């Protein structure tokens, strides 16, 4: 039953001493619907009735139009009413005016149209009842907190009269003494209130209050903290970020328990209002770098921000470059390591992939395992990655160059083997590479899209088709199978997925160059790539550092990894305000403990 | 801000760079290796008409290459195809040969250059010159001379390799496999031809009828590009010792019934000009292994004696060879070149080195060291 009906409504002036509530809920607002829309709707309804009698006419479109017109009519009605209620134009239309009835109407006719938004009217206080309205997003807000910590307490409150005496400060009293929700704030601008409600907060409108209570009841379903899928590590932590930015912050905070860790909040996206966090460690990261990141992100004007990668062009000086200049990672330990190095991390709500800037070329070839194993192991693995890159990138172009353009550079026995194996092949080498690589790319794409179980089958089928049948059919020669297999494996030795993409594209450039210009073309293209890499710069940091410009100190953690004791300083290119990250020498107290003499003494004691 | 003029200039630069890049020599030579007839051996001999050249182009046949890549043995048919071209120049011979083959005759993989000893110096010169100017030719193939039919020698089947050219390449490229490392590459031969004070030489290949095999144990001596003579196998070994190319030379000492094997070592030539008298001294330091001796066991004194005797015999042989070359007016040891290096004014004063070479006073010092292998009982 509607509690604001005539029957239950307290009559003003009947009970002395009882505060009189200006009842604006009682009378139905006699707002005049704009003539235009009313007439239009009447016409539409008449038309619908007419058309219903005519068979073969699709009425769905007309019905949609009528529904939209009704909604529009309501919005106009609310707007008109709100404007009228403001009286003299001293208050902004964006401000809550203290009337729960107006708030109810506004909400009901706007966001209330949506089925996931719940609006509830109730009375604050048991005896003396003050009208109130509560609105929350069903699914994003914790129902238990709303029921038990908010509505239940407010409805059962005994001293509502005392509350009423607070006048416009009534919300403050409720905030301080009534609701038991941990985090509550106040706000009175609709443009701020509605996004907060959409994010899972509960809004409580109290009659006469100047502000609206914003209760933090946010609780939405989130994925558990799982093992990283895209950056696997043999040793090291197995935690990855999930989609909730708060959890992301918690995971970082758990590892950096220092007040110097700063999280600066930013809301990006006109519609999505995505919470974006800029994280850095004060006293380590260069303040100029932090400021530059903030300035760049503040300039982002987007309708919606769903993925962290959307911000990449704003954080990149050379956005057209093939090479990734912002590192993306779902691994908590990598982001924490970057922060400790003096980089800036950008966490985006609803995306488990965090961005870190500035990133250099070598960053994309460093993994967690490099720091969890011995430095010998790390160096070996990095060299294998480099060899993998060269093999993957250059093997097919070299094959095309040597077989098609420069066969004079091949050793005698190899040229005999290649020429012999190609005797029955109908296609030139470049076409062979094209066929094989297209097959590999199709298999790769299909393996990603298919469910896990099927992708294994696909791999087997692919191996049979590619490895056996295609050679037997005489479409490609057996050497090409070896080359393409090594290429596919080599290009994916890159630990970072985004770094594999530019090489896959440049692979084609090299193939084309080798086809037309032979070995000269490969050398020329490689030089162009190196020149491009050397020219890239982001946030004042050379992308090809420490190779170009050469930074001898940083070379200790590049393709070769030196022992941890040698990495006592932060990278030069980051220009950290605290260059030293550990003491130079590892102290070794009790280097040679006297185990034997201690044992002997103990044994002697026992004998005695 | 970029103006139209600056954009135009930028485009002009880009186009110029592209054109330069794309028109570089050899860049458009795109033809897969299986579309080419890979010439492994090229041969030069005098043509039927005077002043004409007869060239041999030998390439592996496609079925033989396919079998080779699969690792299977040789088939019944010949693994190589031979085409010959005759004409006054290399280009004409090449055209004549190309007309007989459906595939592109490719000169970028030449491994062997065979030369007939009957080839006249002018023809040899023009052939070398033309070959040198061929773009794809890399000047590293081995050369040999033969007095027999080039086609026969170049196509002679061996049991050791699928292709005859592979046999010769393996033979010449393995320095320590032969008695003397006789391999001469094209650039070495050309260098000796062009350098005053030294005469080139080539290993000479001959086919023995009984038993049926290839013999590469002699050296053809040239005076500039004119064939002069061929050394016998023993002199060839001695030439190897004097040039420091000996690896598996053996020596039998009849008095002690001793056999020395694996004689190898270095040789140093010292040329001096004493008041117009030129003298050349060869310091040869050799090592060898005692394979057997009549007494079954050897003593230190015996070894010293063997060493002394062996040194004497080898020194005598070397001197004989040197005298022979002096009689032939051929300087394959580069005595004149050495003189030019150390006494250029003396060498420049000599008008014709070939007239001076026979007058050079030759001395040979051989120091042979013997390693015993243990007692054989």
Automatic annotation (TrEMBL), chain A:
Q: Which residues cross the membrane?
A: 383-405, 464-493, 505-530
The protein's superkingdom reads Bacteria
Q: Compositional bias of type Basic and acidic residues: which residue ranges? A: 23-38
Q: Which GO terms describe its biological process?
A: spore germination
This protein's record includes keyword ATP-binding: no
Q: Which GO terms describe its cellular component?
A: membrane
Q: Which InterPro entries match?
A: Spore_Ger, UPF0353/GerABKA_families
The question of whether Transmembrane is a record keyword is answered with yes
Keywords from the named record: Membrane, Transmembrane, Transmembrane helix
Spell out the residue ranges making up region: Disordered.
1-38
Q: Where along the chain is composition biased (Basic residues)? A: 1-11
Under the heading PANTHER family, the entry gives: LEUCINE ZIPPER PROTEIN 4 (PTHR22550:SF5), SPORE GERMINATION PROTEIN (PTHR22550)
What family is this protein classified in?
A: Belongs to the GerABKA family.
The name this protein goes by in its record = Spore germination protein
Classification of source organism: Bacteria, Bacillati, Bacillota, Clostridia, Eubacteriales
Automatic annotation (TrEMBL), chain B:
Q: Where is the Spore germination GerAC-like C-terminal domain?
A: 219-374
Localization: Membrane
Alphabetic keyword roster: Germination, Lipoprotein, Membrane, Palmitate, Signal
Q: Does the keyword Lipoprotein apply?
A: yes
Question: Does the record carry Protein biosynthesis as a key word?
Answer: no
Instruction: Indicate the segments forming the Spore germination protein N-terminal domain, all copies.
Output: 29-206
Q: What is its main location?
A: membrane
Instruction: Give me the Gene Ontology terms describing cellular component.
Output: membrane
Q: Which GO terms describe its biological process?
A: spore germination
Q: Which InterPro entries match?
A: GerAC_N, Spore_GerAC-like, Spore_GerAC-like_C, Spore_GerAC_C_sf
**How does this protein lie in the membrane?**
Lipid-anchor
Tree of life domain: Bacteria
Family designation? Belongs to the GerABKC lipoprotein family.
This one is known as Spore gernimation protein
């Amino acid at each position: 039953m509607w509690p604001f009906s005539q029957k239950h409504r307290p009559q003003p002036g009947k009970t002395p001493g009882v505060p009189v509530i200006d009842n604006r809920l009682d009378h139905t607002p006699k707002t005049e619907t704009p003539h235009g829309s009313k007439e239009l709707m009447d016409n539409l309804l008449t038309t619908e009735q007419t058309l219903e009698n005519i068979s073969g006419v699709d009425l769905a479109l007309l019905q949609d139009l009528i529904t939209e017109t009704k909604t529009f009519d309501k919005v106009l009605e609310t707007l008109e009413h709100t404007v009228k209620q403001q009286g003299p134009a001293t208050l902004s239309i964006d401000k809550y005016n203290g009337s729960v009835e107006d708030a109810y109407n506004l909400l009901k006719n706007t966001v209330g149209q949506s089925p996931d938004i719940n609006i509830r009217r109730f009375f604050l206080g048991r005896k003396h009842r003050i009208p109130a309205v509560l609105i929350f997003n069903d699914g994003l807000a914790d129902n238990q907190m709303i029921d038990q910590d908010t509505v239940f307490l407010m409805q059962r409150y005994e001293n509502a009269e005392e509350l009423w005496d607070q006048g416009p400060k009534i919300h403050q009293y409720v905030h301080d003494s009534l609701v038991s929700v941990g985090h509550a704030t106040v706000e009175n601008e609709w443009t701020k209130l509605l996004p907060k409600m959409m994010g899972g907060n509960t809004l409580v409108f109290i009659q006469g209050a100047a502000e609206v209570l914003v209760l933090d009841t946010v609780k939405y379903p989130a994925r558990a903290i799982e093992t990283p899928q895209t950056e696997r590590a043999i040793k090291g932590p197995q935690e990855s970020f999930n989609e909730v930015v708060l959890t992301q912050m918690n995971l970082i905070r758990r590892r950096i328990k220092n007040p110097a860790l700063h999280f600066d909040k930013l809301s990006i996206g006109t519609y999505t209002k995505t919470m974006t966090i800029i994280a850095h460690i004060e006293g380590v990261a260069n303040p100029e770098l932090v400021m530059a990141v903030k300035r760049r992100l503040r300039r982002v004007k987007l309708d919606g921000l769903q993925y962290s990668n959307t911000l990449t062009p704003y954080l990149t000086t050379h956005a057209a470059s093939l090479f990734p200049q912002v590192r993306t990672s779902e691994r908590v330990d990598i982001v924490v390591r970057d922060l400790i190095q003096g980089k800036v991390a950008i966490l985006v709500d609803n995306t488990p992939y965090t961005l870190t800037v500035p990133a250099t070329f070598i960053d994309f070839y460093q993994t967690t395992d490099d720091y969890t194993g011995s430095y010998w192991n790390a160096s070996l693995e990095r060299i294998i990655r480099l060899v993998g890159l060269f093999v993957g990138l250059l093997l097919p172009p070299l094959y095309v160059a040597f077989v098609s353009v420069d066969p004079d550079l091949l050793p005698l026995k190899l040229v005999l083997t290649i020429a012999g194996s190609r005797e029955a092949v109908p296609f030139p080498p470049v076409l062979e590479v094209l066929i094989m690589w297209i097959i590999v790319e199709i298999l790769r794409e299909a393996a990603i899209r298919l469910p896990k179980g099927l992708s294994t089958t696909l791999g087997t089928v692919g191996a049979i088709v590619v490895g056996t049948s295609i050679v037997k059919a005489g479409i490609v020669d057996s050497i090409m199978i070896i080359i393409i297999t090594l290429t596919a494996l080599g290009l994916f030795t890159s630990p970072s997925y985004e770094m594999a993409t530019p090489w896959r594209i440049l692979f084609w450039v090299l193939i084309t160059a080798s086809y037309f210009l032979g070995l000269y073309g490969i050398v020329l293209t490689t030089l162009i790539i190196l020149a491009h890499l050397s020219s890239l710069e982001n946030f004042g940091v050379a992308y090809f550092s420490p190779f170009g410009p050469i930074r001898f100190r940083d070379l200790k953690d590049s393709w070769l990894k030196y022992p941890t004791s040698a990495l006592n300083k932060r990278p030069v290119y980051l220009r950290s305000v605290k260059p030293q990250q550990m003491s130079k020498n590892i102290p070794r107290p009790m280097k040679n403990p006297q185990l034997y003499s201690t044992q002997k003494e103990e044994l002697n004691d026992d004998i005695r | 801000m970029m103006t139209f003029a600056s954009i135009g200039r930028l485009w002009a630069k880009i186009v110029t760079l592209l054109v330069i890049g794309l028109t570089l020599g050899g860049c458009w030579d795109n033809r897969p290796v299986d579309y080419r007839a890979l010439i492994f051996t090229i041969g030069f001999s005098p043509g039927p008409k005077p002043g004409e050249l007869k060239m041999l182009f030998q390439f592996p046949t496609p079925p033989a290459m396919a079998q080779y890549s699969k690792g299977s043995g040789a088939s019944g048919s010949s693994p190589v195809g031979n085409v010959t071209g005759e004409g006054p120049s290399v280009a004409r011979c090449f055209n004549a040969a190309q007309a007989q083959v459906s595939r592109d005759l490719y000169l970028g993989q030449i491994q062997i250059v065979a030369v007939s000893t009957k080839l006249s110096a002018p023809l040899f010169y023009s052939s070398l010159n033309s070959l040198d100017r061929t773009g794809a030719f890399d000047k590293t193939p081995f050369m040999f001379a033969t007095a027999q039919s080039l086609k026969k020698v170049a196509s002679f089947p061996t049991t050791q390799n699928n292709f005859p050219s592979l046999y010769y390449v393996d033979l010449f490229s393995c320095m320590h496999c032969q008695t003397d490392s006789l391999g001469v590459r094209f650039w070495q031969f050309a260098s000796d031809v062009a350098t005053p004070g030294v005469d080139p030489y080539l290993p000479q290949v001959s086919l023995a009828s009984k038993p049926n095999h290839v013999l590469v144990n002699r050296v053809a001596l040239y005076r500039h590009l004119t064939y002069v003579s061929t050394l016998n196998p023993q002199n060839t070994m001695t030439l190897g010792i004097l040039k420091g190319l000996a690896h598996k030379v053996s020596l039998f000492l009849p008095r002690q019934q001793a056999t020395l094997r694996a004689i190898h070592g270095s040789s140093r030539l010292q040329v001096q000009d004493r008041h117009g008298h030129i003298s050349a001294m060869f310091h040869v330091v050799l090592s060898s292994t005692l394979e057997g001796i009549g007494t079954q066991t050897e003593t230190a004194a015996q070894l010293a004696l063997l060493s002394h005797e062996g040194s004497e015999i080898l020194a005598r042989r070397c001197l004989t060879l040197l005298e022979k070359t002096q009689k032939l007016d051929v300087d394959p040891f580069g005595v004149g070149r050495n003189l030019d290096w150390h006494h250029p004014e003396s060498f420049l004063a000599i008008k014709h080195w070939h007239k001076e070479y026979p007058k050079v006073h030759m001395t040979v010092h051989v120091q042979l060291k013997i390693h015993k292998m243990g007692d054989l009982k």
